[in-house]
Design goal:
Elements lengths: L9 H20 L24 H23 L1 H26 L13 H13 L6 H29 L4 H24 L3 H22 L12 H22 L7 H7 L2 H16 L12 H25 L6
Length: 326
């Protein structure tokens, strides 16, 4: 990758914090009957706001992998930096396997629970590792090839398998890694731009271009998270770029504007795991009137309690100076 002078970007913490909050509230509301379908995952073709949360976690990797690898390469050398990234990726796959094993105790009808967000991040990072020090043009080309290859395999052989798999299964990782590869190219350029104004413009323009390309592509390739389609990846990348552009503009111009959200985003892995445990406590009673069939006021109270718990945990961890890193 390029060798820019990486500086800490406050907007990253806000972006990751929003991703965790949206993931927690989305997972909580998934089985609540009064929540409209427009706020839940689409079963197949189409995209809702819930379908755009998982890509935020993939994009967050693109935001940090460059600075992280650069620091490690300078301090420990190229091979050590690559080894650390490989171990981290494998650890994410292992943690994800434990999570999906727990989810398998209460599976969704017709859904194969064998692959989750953490496993997808880990596997996509391993694929990125093969090209991590490659020129930007080669990573961009590789990302496009991965998306095209995956789309061909999906349409020709594996559509039903992917649709039935949790988070698109192992094959879907090809598509997610393609998005990650392209995202690193855009983010690398972002770090190289010295002007704050032009950094923001670059993010916004890239986001509009990616989303526009995805919408155009959707004329031929259905837009669907359940399929991890190429059009969905392009639209998701555009969405992530635009959201991050807002956070960069809002927080990096004046750090500390959203301290509550940044606290959550500074410890993303710990808070991701914590939200799963908290959700387990809410869902575990198994009584319809308590969760799935709960009245609106009770669901909103539970959602507020989940958010308060996440913020409390984030505050405690920050006070202690504890950050869960792999």
């Amino acid at each position: 990758m390029e060798d820019p002078r990486y500086l800490r970007v406050q907007g990253i913490d806000g972006f990751r914090g929003l991703a965790i909050v949206l993931m927690a509230l989305g997972n909580f509301s998934f089985n609540i009957r009064w929540v409209p379908g427009a706020l839940k995952h689409m079963p197949d073709i189409g995209v809702t706001i819930a379908d755009l949360v998982a890509p935020m976690f993939i994009f967050a990797i693109a935001l940090t992998v460059g600075p992280s690898m650069q620091r490690r390469r300078i301090k420990f050398g190229k091979r050590a930096a690559q080894g650390k990234m490989a171990l981290r990726s494998l650890a994410l796959i292992g943690i994800g396997a434990i999570v999906t094993a727990g989810e398998a105790m209460n599976p969704s009808p017709g859904r194969i629970l064998s692959w989750g967000v953490l496993q997808c991040i880990g596997a996509s990072s391993l694929i990125l590792l093969l090209f991590i020090y490659s020129p930007a043009w080669l990573r961009a080309l590789t990302g496009l090839i991965l998306l095209a290859l995956y789309q061909f395999l999906l349409d020709s052989y594996f559509l039903e398998v992917v649709k039935a798999s949790s988070h698109n299964g192992l094959l879907g990782t090809l598509s997610w890694s393609g998005m990650l590869m392209i995202a690193t190219v855009i983010v690398d350029r972002f770090y190289l731009i010295k002007s704050f104004k032009w950094q923001t413009i670059w993010l916004a323009a890239s986001g509009i271009a990616a989303a526009g390309f995805g919408l155009l592509l959707s004329i031929w390739v259905p837009l669907a998270k359940s399929r991890a389609s190429a059009s969905y990846m392009a639209v998701s990348l555009g969405f992530c770029l635009l959201v991050f552009a807002v956070f960069h503009w809002f927080l990096d111009a004046k750090p500390g504007r959203l301290p509550w959200l940044q606290k959550i985003g500074r410890n993303p892995l710990a808070l991701y795991i914590a939200h799963l445990l908290i959700l387990g406590l809410v869902v575990s009673p198994g009584q319809d009137g308590w969760y799935a069939g709960a009245p609106i006021w009770l669901s909103l109270l539970q959602a507020a309690a989940i958010f308060a718990a996440l913020f409390g945990i984030a505050t405690f961890l920050e006070k202690k100076g504890w950050i869960l890193r792999l």
